Structures are given as C-alpha cells and as structure tokens.
C-alpha cells in the first residue's frame, strides 16, 4: 500500500455551505490527514495525505461533495509527501 499526498481544487458552489467541515469529516473517516481551505477565487483547496485507496475514495467523494454544495469541477495533482497532523479546516 503506497502513501501519497494529493492537492485538489474544487469549484462550484462550495463556500458558505459547510463544504470544508464535511470534507474534514470525510477525510478523518478515511484515516487521512490534511486540510480544507477556502480560496479568494471561490474555490476550496483540499490537501489529503494517506493510503492511496483512501485518497482516491475522498477524491471520488469530492466530485459530489455534501448535499448543500454544487460541485462543478475537481482538479488535482499529486504533491510531495507532507507530515500533517489531523485534518483541519483553514
């Protein structure tokens, strides 16, 4: 099982709807570390690190997001491993 970190950018109606809170909850459920952060352009950046299958599962969840959101697009890239404690909302 390989470990990896992925940074995703989620666009759509994703701010002001609990998106970061739900993302952190879903990340913790999958034993991932990372963060969810609002950006000035209206997107949410999600950093996730952990087992590859768990990262892929969170990426799949991000395609829909919580029921309160409307995800239009998710782009992501693998980044260098980072040791992050927990899954935070920034």
From TrEMBL:
Keyword entries, A-Z: Hydrolase
Keyword hit for tRNA processing: no
Positions of the catalytic residues: 20, 38
EC number(s) on file: 3.6.1.7
UniProt enzyme class: hydrolase
Reactions listed under catalytic activity: an acyl phosphate + H2O = a carboxylate + phosphate + H(+)
Keyword presence, Hydrolase: yes
Domain Acylphosphatase-like: 5-90
GO molecular-function terms, A-Z: acylphosphatase activity
Record-stated family: Belongs to the acylphosphatase family.
Name of the protein described by the UniProt record: Acylphosphatase
UniProt organism field: Enterovibrio norvegicus
Gene name of this polypeptide: yccX
């Amino acid at each position: 099982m390989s470990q990896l970190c992925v940074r995703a950018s989620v666009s759509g109606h994703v701010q002001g709807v609990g998106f970061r809170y739900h993302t952190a909850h879903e990340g913790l459920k999958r034993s991932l570390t990372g963060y969810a952060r609002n950006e000035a352009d209206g997107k949410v950046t999600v950093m996730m690190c952990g087992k590859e299958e768990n990262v892929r599962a969170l990426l799949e969840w991000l395609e829909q997001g919580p029921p309160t959101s409307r995800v239009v697009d998710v782009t992501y890239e693998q980044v260098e491993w980072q040791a992050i404690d927990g899954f935070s909302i920034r």
